[in-house]
Structures are given as structure tokens and as C-alpha cells.
Amino acid sequence: MSIRLLIADDHAIVRSGLSMLIGSQSDMEVIATAADGKEAVDKALDLRPDIVLMDLSMPPGENGLSATSRLKDAAPEIDILVLTMHDDEEYLFRVLQAGASGYILKSAPDLDLINAIRTVHSGAAYLHPTATKSLIAEFLQRVQKGQDVENFHVLTDREQEILQYIAKGYSNKEIAEQLIVSVKTVETHKSKIMEKLQMKTRPELVRYALKKGLLDFE
């Protein structure tokens, strides 16, 4: 039986190229594509692929990190292989914590991607070569000890999303319009963000978001 894949990437030409590459493999089948995280989650829950090949940056839609977390909560049996341009340890940690089974760079050779898909489908994890075993071991050890790996993770997916809008300079009203919620809902989330991060002002939130590279998703 073929490995059934869903490809999520905001660039149509990337989706087409990956579909051609993966579709040329005798043991793989691309059953759907998606342009952002929300579409990826909706289609994955409907079509139940074996693997979702997930990009991280998919503006202006839901990003791949948030989508990975939501999809793993709703359908843990679906494996997620992140395909990204971000060669960064923090992104790697956050993706693993969200439940992804693999992390490969867009700069990787075609054969590495095909091998990554087969590895994840076999039930193993796949990481790009620069992510060392000691790195993973250190991360897991810290999580098991209950240490605060990154206080960004104490925020819910919605709070993380709102924090990124704040960092981009959106007003509460503009954020509410983007997310189709009330201004009061945004204000409530913002208060919880400040409480969790122990911050008191909007500039503090902006500096925090910039320091953590949250704007790198676009």
C-alpha cells in the first residue's frame, strides 16, 4: 500500500514540485495539498493521510507550528514531517514539542526528503543531519525534569498567534478583525499573555516577540 501524503505549503510552485517528486515514487501518493495550516488540518482530518508534509511559514494563514499542534491533538495517528527553510535549534525544539515526527530543510537533496518520508512512515523520527543526537537528548531531559524549556510554550496556540500580531504592530481592534473575534476577547487573551510572561506593557511584549524571533515566520 502506498504512503498517502498531504502537502502544506503557501507557495503553489513548491506544492507542484513536491507533488511531482513524491508522485514519481512507486510507494507514495499525494492525496491533497493545502496553502496554509488551517486548510492542512481541515483536509487532514477529512482525508486521513499517513503523513502531512508541513511548511512552517505560510502567511497570511495559520503557520505550520500551530497547525502541527492542533492536528496532533485531533489525530495523533497522522505523522507530520516538517519541511522548512529554518535551520534553527529553537524551531526544531518547538516543532518536536508540538508533536512532529520529523524535521527536514528545504535545502536538502530530493533523495533525503524521500528517505525522510519513508523513515517517518516506518514509525521512526527523522531529523536533518545538523540536528545532533545530543541536542535531542538534552531537550528531552529538560522536558522530563519539568524545566521551563521556553516560556513561550506556556501560551496557548491562540495566545501565541495574538502575540505575533502584537509584535507586528496590530491594534486590538485590528487583531480582532483578523481573527474574527471580539475586541474584548483579544484584550482577555492579551491580559493572560502578560500574566504568563510576567510582563506589564505592550512594548515589553513586542521586545519579547522580537527577541524570540517570532516575526521570522513571515
TrEMBL record:
Keyword annotations: DNA-binding, Phosphoprotein, Transcription, Transcription regulation
Q: Any idea what this protein is called? A: DNA-binding response regulator
**What's a GO biological-process term for it?**
regulation of DNA-templated transcription
Q: Which Gene3D superfamilies match?
A: 3.40.50.2300
Residues annotated as domain Response regulatory: 4-121
Ranges of residues in domain HTH luxR-type: 148-213
Q: Name one GO molecular function term.
A: DNA binding
Residue(s) carrying 4-aspartylphosphate: D55
> What organism is listed for this UniProt entry?
Tumebacillus avium
